[in-house]
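Provenance and format

Records in this collection were gathered into a single text stream. Each protein contributes a sequence line and a token line. The two records reproduced below are adjacent in the stream.
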Amino acid sequence: MLDLIWLIPALPLLGFFINVVFGRLLGEPKSGALAALMVAGSFVVTVGAFFDLISMPTEERHHVVTAFSWVPVGSLHVDLAFLADPLSITMALFVTGIGTLIHLYAIGYMHGDPKFSKFFIYLNLFVFSMLMLVMGENLLVTFLGWEGVGTCSYFLISFWHTRESAATAGKKAFVTNRVGDWGVMMGMFLAFGATGTLSYAGINHAAESGALSAVTATAIGLMLFIGACGKSAQLPLYIWLPDAMEGPTPVSALIHAATMVTAGVFLMTRVNPVLSISYDWAPTLIAIVGVATALFAATIAVAQTDIKKVLAYSTVSQLGFMFLAVGSGAYVAAIFHMVTHAFFKALLFLGSGSVIHGMHHEQDMRRMGALRKLMPVTAFTFIIGWLAIAGVPPFAGFWSKDEILLFAFAKSPILYVVGLITALLTAYYMTRQVIMVFFGEARWNDHSEEHGAHGDFKPHESPKIMLLPLVVLAGLSVVGGAMQLPFTKDLHFLEKWLEPVVEFGEADIHHSWAYENKYILLGIAIVVAVAGILLSAAVYAKKKIAAVEPALLADGWKYDKAITSFMGGPGRRAFDGVAWADRTIVDGAVNGVGRLVQGAGGFLRKGQTGAVRNYAAAVGLGVVALLVWFFLRGVVL
């Protein structure tokens, strides 16, 4: 099966082409079923590749399939090649597995949309691009997928382009990601200049063998980190992700939970040897940016009223935890949290979509309440996702978040404390969301006339095709933590699986105070999660404490508005100034040289009369001039 790994990205690409040609003819739901079938096929191939790899000795779990020589230019030889190793197969498993569930869900969610088949064209193209990103054997193939998911996110976020907010959100995501893409390109240039290759194997081997200097490794790592900040929505480039909620909910689940936003964490993990030999302050900077983003986004989430905006800022916050892990040298914990987050956040996004569907496209949580009785399956599965993200044992999110906090404490107690505060806020705002949506008083009757129901408005449960993915993801959110339990080494399944990839870069904390007292930290994490839940319940369920939702937090600390004001004011004038300098000075110099040459040529052209006697006279004058010169030279000498 390993020789067929090219099928993993090829099948969604085939689905894309079939729907481009025959999508309208197939119509609803066949075009959606075809798209889902292709992604399911990729999942089957990935599972086969996983079993092939796991049957091999640990040191041999590395298989490359080359399609063709892509860029044979001088010393630069880049193949369109696919890499099957524990990291790429782990990524491909949850991209295709959760992608299949989201495709099935979308068949029900997009029912009746006039552009039904076009939506699945974009969805298949997105999955193809993401699989190219994670399975690329070298940075250039990864960058192909990197640009592909950026383009597809623009198409999907602005899918309902007749809504100005959606069109604007799509452009915002596209432009913001371009900033990060610059960082990836610079990292590629530096890596090739230093090692002569873009292959991950070559770059990482240069780092491990000492052929790569610390200063170069730091530059490469930080340039790639800039790209990761753009794609994975970290400060200061997170601003595109909350607005991306304008896309259909399956897009939110696919892009903002399971796939695209994890690309930055994947890239950092892939080049972990480079980060390991860089200067110590570089990983520390990554950890600081991660934990600052986590806390910043969590504070904003506590005051949001849009059901999807809460989850959007939650995603930014959880991605911050993953970068805290990367900066702390906890690459296994980063991938662990990435996988569990894919389970429970996809569940929460799809659950929110089910609520929106049942509420006739209402997204304001202040107009919900008491939905658990009318939407029992959605409520039950959403509550499981809430317990997982809040860090309640034994749900999946507890184990992965605790492992990150363990490594963070070993690196710096300050990082640990900030991470713990963020965990408290996570439990708080997610409990707030569950209470506002599924418990308390039913507030939707007060707004029934806005839906044209004239008092007959009543929320309803979603169709079975939308509920099935919720049930599967709920199950994964319960048992997902079993892949990496902290009790004994025998239960570290994910660590053993990823060992060939992260062995060089993984931090060793076995002799630290944090590791020797990990059960104390485990207990503290439980207490913090329970405290966040109880505090939120006291505020929103029992009304014993007044809710604190400052407008400043609801407005995202006005960070987005500040950037908008800058771009529309000083930034716009600066860009106009740069354009003037380019037009006047740069182009002026080039055009001036051209006009100078043209003028000189015009002057010389006047002497080219075409009359032979004129040329003969010029030759004669030249001969006389030469004789005079030789005569005078002889006299002087």
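Adjacent record:
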Amino acid sequence: MADDLDRALERLTGRPGVAFRDGQREAVEALAIRRERVLLVQRTGWGKSAVYFLATRLLRDAGFGPTLLISPLLALMRNQLEAAARLGLRAYTVNSASDTKVSEIADLLERDEVDLLLISPERLANPEFGDKVMPLVGRRPGLIVIDEAHCISDWGHDFRPDYRRLGQMIDGLPGRFPVLGCTATANNRVVDDVATQLGVTMNVLRGPLTRDGLSLQVIDLPDAAERLCWLDHHLGELPGSGIIYCLTVDDTRRVADWLSQRGHSVMAYSGDLENEHRLEAEAALQSNEIKALVATTALGMGYDKPDLGFVVHFQAPGSPIAYYQQVGRAGRALDSSVAVLLRGTEDAQIQDWFIQQAFPDERHVDEVLAVFENVRGPVTLAGVEADVNMRHSTLESVLKQLTVEGALTRLRSQTYERTLKPWKYPTERVQAVTAARREEQQQMVEYATTDSCRMRFLTRLLDDASSVPCGVCDVCAEQRFRGPLDPSEVAAARLYLRQGFITIEPRKRLVGHALPVEQRFETGRALCAWGDRGWGTLVMAGKHEGTRFDDRLVSAAVDMIREWSPEPMPTWVAYVPSLRHPVLVADLARRIGAALALPVLDVVRKARNTPQQKGMQNSAHQHANVDGAFSVSGVIPPGPVLLVDDLVDSRWTFTEVAKRLRLAGAGQVFPLALASTMGRDS
């Protein structure tokens, strides 16, 4: 067995004479020889994937069933497929970006032609996968691997409800089989929770978590324009290629676009990208064709580029443990690497949003359960959505929680039914975990302001008692990449932040039927996002004052219209009236019309008072709220019209008013708003 292991390790790494790291051989032997359950808590780059690849090779050679590997991210899966191939493992995956279908996997399993099957935890909720694949896995279970096992625990920094199914899945498989959980970011509380869920007799193999040679730096730059300027000035000085992490998808695009304009070779990366573009971006970084990927955490856990020279955070994540996991991407095969945290004023606001979204609100859960109790049978997602005033994403989160915890069962795509299992909202657990998230948020502030070794600070939060001062962070050694920023460059970055706009796409359907083309509005524009670092704060101030928007916003909107130059160009201006703020939008429209030398006509009327549209959380309720709420009167010019409102979110108000204008004889309708509030609290 020792010779077999040594040869397999050489084959996996491509390095003759390579030696096992402390703990690797012990873990492989526990899994492949004694068929035990193991939890590995080891730093990033230690070689956790080598353990399950080697154990898979040995188990398959001994005639056992295939390995089922549950992995959270597409980027991680792609790396694992490539590594598995080096060891001669026949590896397949089923995910949203995979060409391989569930039925094909089932056929391959029937013929015993799968050594390693990679799936996301969400795949376990898929009825087709459960019916066709899991019985074949359960018939002859080999090794079960849960990568990034901290996701199982509420207390983990990246808890995912779908991971809750893993304990149930393991309990439902027959016989005795090995289980491996892997993580680099679990403190004692998380380790205990994961071990309990995956088997109380597990071996917990922990190693030191200090990353040698990784120089941690913190720089306070509250203004986003200053951080853009810093990146432009210092990106070329950072070693090799790396990752720039942002907390939002919008910021990945904004930062990448800015740096590209300034001559840097970067690409944006997020879960919103099509699979083809994600692959292209990953390959470009992997081959050092670009300086950096500007990414969300979609490029995070398990992404393997051993020579990654740096990690920069444009904003601070909400947890020091999450931060440790992300900076751990850097310097795995390098003697030295750099991680720089740039702290901004918006950090806490974005962190708060993630904390608030972690669990569905009890009221929302009760409303959804009431629908199923009233119907007493299968209900589609659309059916639930019509009955509850709830955002689509919130409703999906509620349905997922109730399904994972057994209160609902998913019958097929987007169809659910109440089970007989009693269920009560886990108030104490939600409150406890939320309090822990708040504590982690404060720890992130303490990390940034500590006067002791930053690496030691992080690893002690992970309960690594062996940690010692690193000698290379900005507390232990030199402060790097600091110095005054050129005011003119900061001004240029601030101007850039104010130059973006948001496209307002027309709705093509009303609830239940298509909207005729001749009744739709044309593609429009919003000047900014609500509260963003460009014009958004000025929009917020004007909205809250309720009488007049700043002249600078009017000027910027007019400049945007002139640059946009809709075709055909509007010949007159209308606006969306408000009973709550009758002056605000009318005044905005008149000032825009005066600047463009276009007549402003007061032809749209509010036919009935309605609740605020922002209180309507999904399309069914948003459409019902404005349906018939507006009328058009007076002489309507036949030419194209610029339709002005202060805010846009669901686009239903623009849809309804534009339909009324078109039916009254107006030409094309081009909507214009100062800000988009989509996904934000306005």
